[in-house]
Specification:
Shape: rod-shaped
Distance between the termini: 169 Å
Strand order of the largest sheet: 1-2-3-4-5-6-7-8-9-10-11-12
Radius of gyration: 43 Å
Strand content: 5-15%
Helix content: 10-25%
């Protein structure tokens, strides 16, 4: 390794002086055994002795150290200079310069994958893209994309400076100029949009998408709620009968809501300490296990609030039915009272007539007959 570093340093120093060598007569193209082709000073210098096949080296010291490696293509001064691997393609000055046993790498651009040693299946397109990489299966497209990555693997960076500061994180995706520049060691992150990850973004298993927060939808009339399922698929929650089975009336199932305890609280991560309103998921789980969402380990995470709306509707309709029944009873009672009132009025009228007749009888003059 020490000797490789010394050779690498010497080659880099020479590349700095490369313009001074332009006046030096270039070596003619040479057809070599084993389907190898070399054109440039010391290009494929060790291939014949090593037995490599179907290699092409075009440029000063291109594929110089290659021995038994096969199917490599190096185009540019210092391209694949120290490579010992197979099926690598380097186009650009110092592209894949330090590649050792790494295989199946593609580098296009000055110093792209320059310091890659044993990394494999990497694709770098852009000046200094993946320049310090030693990991595998990384894809970087753009100047300085994933420039500082070392052992990180399975990352994808598209855009100038995207994932530039990522060192050992893996499985990250960044799309846009400077997207994901705050990612250093985090893994399985997604950053979409120019500068798509903020200053606190080095957190694994998170997703950042620019131009969403505080932006109204373009057509409010057609907007619908969006959910994410356990497979990370975004979509709406269907309500059509064709998506459902075992359909039954909710009846008393919604009465579990009466066992919930609404609370006020503040989120630990809320720097504004804003008062929030809701319930505690662990308490809900004790009353209604189907109303909570659990992670893959079975730990309670949150409440399925979208279900509560339907349950409240059921309770509202039940109470509304009770009110209707009560109103019907009251209406019947009101009708009965009206009949009773009419009867009382009729009785009062009759009493009044009888009383009037009695009064007439009392006040009528009495005629007394005189007897002789």
């Amino acid at each position: 390794m020490k000797n490789r570093n010394i050779i690498c340093a010497a080659l880099l120093s020479a590349l700095v002086c490369f313009p001074l060598l332009l006046n030096t007569q270039a070596a003619p193209e040479v057809a070599l055994p084993g389907f190898n082709t070399a054109d440039g000073d010391h290009a494929l210098g060790n291939t014949l002795a090593g037995g490599g096949n179907a290699n092409s080296g075009f440029g000063w010291y291109a594929l110089f150290a290659n021995g038994a490696g096969s199917y490599n293509t190096g185009v540019g001064a210092g391209a694949l200079t120290l490579s010992l691997g197979d099926q690598n393609t380097a186009v650009g000055t110092a592209a894949l310069l330090s590649n050792g046993t790494g295989n199946y790498n593609n580098a296009v651009g000055v110093s792209a994958l320059q310091n890659n040693s044993g990394g494999f299946y990497n694709n770098a397109h852009g000046r200094q893209a993946l320049t310090n990489n030693t990991g595998g299966e990384n894809n970087a497209f753009g100047d300085f994309a994933m420039q500082n990555n070392t052992t990180g693997s399975s990352n994808t960076a598209i855009g100038d400076d995207s994932l530039r500061n990522c060192v050992d994180g893996s499985g990250n995706v960044a799309v846009g100029d400077e997207a994901g520049t705050s990612i250093v060691s985090a893994s399985n992150m997604v950053a979409i949009g120019a500068s798509g990850a903020g200053p606190y973004a080095d957190i694994s298993n998170t997703c950042f998408i620019a131009s969403i927060f505080d932006e109204p939808v373009s057509d409010a009339g057609s907007a619908q709620d969006v959910y994410v399922d356990q497979h990370n698929v975004l979509g709406f929650l269907p309500s059509s009968q064709r998506f459902k089975h075992d359909i039954q009336a909710m009846d008393k199932a919604s009465e579990v809501l009466y066992g919930l305890k609404p609370v006020t609280f503040k989120y630990n991560s809320d720097k504004t300490a804003r008062t929030q309103y809701g319930v505690i998921a662990e308490e809900v789980a004790k009353v209604a296990p189907d109303l909570v969402f659990r992670d893959k380990d079975g730990t309670v995470e949150t409440v399925r609030f979208e279900q509560i709306g339907s349950m409240l509707l059921n309770e509202f309709l039940k109470e509304h039915k009770k009110v209707e029944e009560l109103q019907a009873t009251v209406a019947l009672q009101q009708k009965g009272m009206e009949v009773l009132t009419a009867q009382l009025k009729e009785q009062a009228a009759q009493i009044q007539r009888v009383s009037a007749q009695l009064e007439v009888s009392k006040t009528a003059p009495q005629v007394v007959a005189n007897k002789p």
